[in-house]
Amino acid sequence: MLRRQLLGSLPLLGAGAVGLVYPAAAPAQQARGNTLVVVTTPEPTVLTNAINSAPSVAELATKIYDGLLEYDMQMQPQPSLAESWEVSGDGKSVTFKLRRGVTWHDGKPFTSADVAFSLLEVVKKFHPRGPGNLGPLEAVDTPDEHTAVLHLAHPYPPMMKGLSSLESPIVAKHLYEGTDIRNNPANNRPIGTGPFKFAEWNRGASIILEKNPNYWRPGRPYLDRLIFRFINDPATRAAALESGEVDVAFFGTITPAEMRRLASLPSIEIAQGGYEALAPMMLLELNTKKKPLDDKRVRQALAYAIDRKFIVDNVWYGFGKPAVGPISSVYSGSGLYTDQVLRFDVPDRVARANALLDEAGYKRGSGGIRFELTQDVGPYGDDYRRMGEYMRQAYNRIGVRLNLRTVDQATYVRRVYTDYDFDMTSGWYVGMGDPTLGVQRQFVTSNIRQGIPFNNVAQYSDPENDRLWAQAAVETDPAKRGELFHAIQRKLVEDSPVIWIMEMDLVALQNKRVKNLITSGLGVRGGLYETRVEG
């Protein structure tokens, strides 16, 4: 029953039992007492990614929390809090043997009760991707403190790709049980089992994490301290990296033009890789419950009106490629991606957009304007506003007046995800190792969850779409699964509840003295326990 197999060939759910092999200890000349300073934006509103998957939250929280598993560059599972795992013959249960001797940062022991509570009461209910990651998980048995048995209603191939600290962080039951989980004080003073401990939050300036001296990986982490800096001005962020005041700049903190310039300097380089497994996608989400966006002809017209290649080349300076639909081409190798969908990158796209708006009954009025829309600009860096300014010009060509609204992240999250007080909003999502994990949440009816960020905020609901996703989640035949995902892509692009813009190259910039920044398929969203700074 105990098997080691590549996920791509798993007939049911995915299984394996592998021993953890640590990289060789760092050479003696490498400094072990050091600090890594990173700059990111915006400042997170909460520090626990079990309830919020915003990029800056995930970048920080994955250093504090562990998951049951980690993943290598090919998204194959590796042990973390689980040392080994066993899948039942019918694929409906998975038994995890948990690591012994692990403690929470407050000194309490980590046990199987923490796993059961985290998955069922926190991740599945509050993590934006929780329903997709855990799918048909119904119960977790804990026969002893170091065994957790996950019971599923049916075999679920994607789950074994969704158990990292990014997707399913394990939180402390003794801190959360019986509390208002979304408003628990531990969300902003997090206590995990991970390589770094929360130390200090200087609002508006920095968050400091310190080395966990009792971390279960021998000799890790190498860093003594990890400092997240928040600098309002992008030019100042760039100057801080160039001067060496900052060691690493995450994607979105520095304008792409400056990224290209800085990467040409002898002391700075692009940290390659680590984002492919995330399958990041930039998009515009449309409020399909508000006129005129309740008409798919209007949504299609808006999709035709923008030149994606222009955006990639002139706003993002080539850090990506034009998108054609909801699923990234990184899934091509598994047969899940197709570009045989309604294409908006056609030569007569502006004429088609105008014709669709005329057909929908939105004739040009005074000044040639058909109607007005407001775009809530994603609070992830100034380039989102630059992209919005391009879109304002593009939409003006088809008689749509676009207003741009920029606010702080807390206001943005409340307005868009809690109040649904928006027309369209720019942002980006991750697809993760399987579309069921990261893409499905944006489009199925069951994931219209008001107040929980980064879900189906378009409020798109279609029975045929729901049926296709449900079939794809349980289909084990690769060819049939591919056909289902192709049908999903054709259906969603036709209905256009979202405008897909760009498959992102989610690269970071680093000073060359930083070593081993990217060591897993999750890139900078990994634990950074192998990262060090030389010199």
TrEMBL record:
InterPro entries: Peptide/Ni-bd, SBP_5, SBP_5_dom. It comes from Roseomonas populi. Belongs to the bacterial solute-binding protein 5 family. It is found in: Periplasm. Keywords: Signal. Residues 76-443 form the Solute-binding protein family domain. The lineage of its organism: Bacteria, Pseudomonadati, Pseudomonadota, Alphaproteobacteria, Acetobacterales. Its main location: periplasm. This is ABC transporter substrate-binding protein.
